[in-house]
Design a protein that fits this description.
six-stranded mixed beta sheet, two-stranded antiparallel sheet, 38% strand, 152 residues
């Protein structure tokens, strides 16, 4: 499972001209679910996301987490994070989980964020064509990949 975290001052997602999810200060999370991922990876990733210290403290150091600052999270499913572009010029998405199970784990991850204490979690619409507006704060962008961080 991959999560691309972007620290934002605000973010929103629009489907068919209607804003369906929006947040203020916090994180925009693009989530890619891969074959082999499960609830264990989703729980781990939600805990890591909520506790990652990427918000500034009084001294201007990245020393506070989403939980510490009372931030919000907008989670959008992004199967293209699972792309393999090592060969040729057209990415392969063979590693991306099939939609029904990916949707279930996407929803499970958003609930895991809530259980971790994130005060507000908004979402996009799984499988829809979405327009995402991101006001990246910093900018700060971090990629979390359970295949990498759960190994160590």
């Amino acid at each position: 499972m991959k999560a691309l975290l972007q620290r934002v001052s605000r973010a929103s997602v629009t489907v068919d001209g209607e804003v369906i999810g929006e947040v203020g200060a916090g994180l925009m999370i693009l989530l890619g679910v891969q074959e082999g991922d499960g609830e264990k990876e989703a729980d781990f990733l939600a805990d890591k996301t909520a506790g990652l210290r990427i918000f500034e403290d009084e001294a201007g150091k990245m020393n506070r987490s989403l939980l510490d600052v009372g931030g919000e999270a907008l989670v959008v499913s992004q199967f293209t994070l699972c792309a393999d572009a090592r060969k040729g010029r057209r990415p392969s998405f063979i590693k991306a989980m099939k939609p029904p199970e990916a949707d279930r784990l996407y929803r499970y991850y958003t609930e895991a964020l809530r259980r971790a204490g994130v005060r507000r979690v908004a979402t996009g619409e799984f499988g829809a064509m979405m327009q995402v507006e991101i006001h990246n704060d910093g900018p700060v962008t971090i990629l979390l990949d359970t295949d990498e961080i759960m190994k160590s």
